[in-house]
Amino acid sequence: MGPPEIKNSDSPRPPKLSPRAGLPTVTRSAPAASAPIDRKSTMPMQRVRGSDLHYEVHGRAGDPVVLVHGSLVDLHSFDLVVPGLAQSMEVVTYDRRGHGESAPRPRSAPVRDDAADLAGLLEALNVYPVHVVAHSYGGAVALRLAIDRPEMVRSVALHEPPFVGLLAAEPATALEGQQLVAGTRILQQLIRSGQRELAVQQLVGVFSTEPGAWGRLPASVQQTFLRTVDRWAEEFDDPEALLPDLAACRDLMVPALLTYGSESPPFLRHITQNLGGVLHNCKIVGLPEAGHVPHVVRPQQYVGILLTFLLERNVPVS
């Protein structure tokens, strides 16, 4: 797949984000596990490494799992899968630094900084070892956490981390990967030259195979993408967002589930397969009729796949 073609209109339609549904939530200090919290009046925050991170905890039974969102979005992108997971597990969602309600602070090495933030949050909440479910860029954060703090991670479940550098590193996919890396740099240049909307339209198109129109998106979704696209540009300045630490990944023994959507662009499946060749203890699963955001478009299916993997790996901690 070549560098993104810059268009002024009629870009492929991005997946629709879930609404900010009022899910029953509890914080770790809540008096009852089932007590709902009004998100408008209560916003749990934790100070971690100089930043205030917004988080939520759902459910109380079973092993803990933390959900790590991707770029352009926040913890609410997981709203549709949290209830299903929370029936069997304790579910932590959070806004990464500079996303949602979490305070923005500069990141010199975004992937490592985000992983250190996550480790600090889990330590502060005393929720570890934990299963880590991550979407897109969040997959880079999950892998770095598993590499740096393996004692904190029971397993990782990654959906389509966009490691286009992994394609460039393999002879069979080198040309495709090089073109995608070049396309990433083009989009970053557009963002930094002030052509934010054009860049976002094209970025959305890279992760979709369906024709659609940017104009049909709800204005709130468009504004969220436009507001956070600078963070995306910063994240993909980090070489580790494009290519994981292959030597460290080969040494990882943490169980891993790698998923890809049958409706996603082929390069994401290629990345998933290449990553599966690096990780020793992994399982690859294709999701029928799903694309880059199965937690939004096929939430029940995705929850079923995750629980099958996660509950098999619930091992009591002595």
Write the topology of this structure.
Blueprint: E1 45-48, E2 51-58, E3 64-68, H1 82-86, E4 90-94, H2 110-125, E5 130-135, H3 138-148, E6 153-159, H4 164-168, H5 174-192, H6 196-206, H7 219-235, H8 239-242, H9 246-251, E7 256-261, H10 266-276, E8 282-287, H11 294-297, H12 299-311
Parallel strand pairs: 3-4, 3-5, 5-6, 6-7, 7-8
Antiparallel strand pairs: 1-2, 2-4
Helix pairs in contact: 2-3, 5-6
Structure explained in plain terms:
There is one protein chain. This protein has one domain: Alpha/Beta hydrolase fold, catalytic domain (Rossmann fold). Helix content is 38%, strand content 15%. The protein contains twelve helices and eight strands. An eight-stranded mixed beta sheet has the order 1-2-4-3-5-6-7-8, sandwiched between helices. Strand 7, helix 10 and strand 8 form a beta-alpha-beta unit. Helix 2 packs across helix 3 and helix 5 packs antiparallel against helix 6. The protein starts with 44 loop residues before the first strand and ends in a 7-residue tail after the last helix.
| Sheet having the most strands | 8 strands, mixed
CATH topology group: Rossmann fold
Whole-number mean pLDDT: 84
CATH superfamily: Alpha/Beta hydrolase fold, catalytic domain
End-to-end separation: 49 Å
What is the CATH class designation? Alpha Beta
Question: How many beta strands in the DSSP annotation?
Answer: 8
* Share of residues in strands: 5-15%
Shape: globular
Contiguous low-pLDDT stretches (5 residues minimum) are 1-41
What CATH architecture label applies? 3-Layer(aba) Sandwich
- How many domains? The number is 1
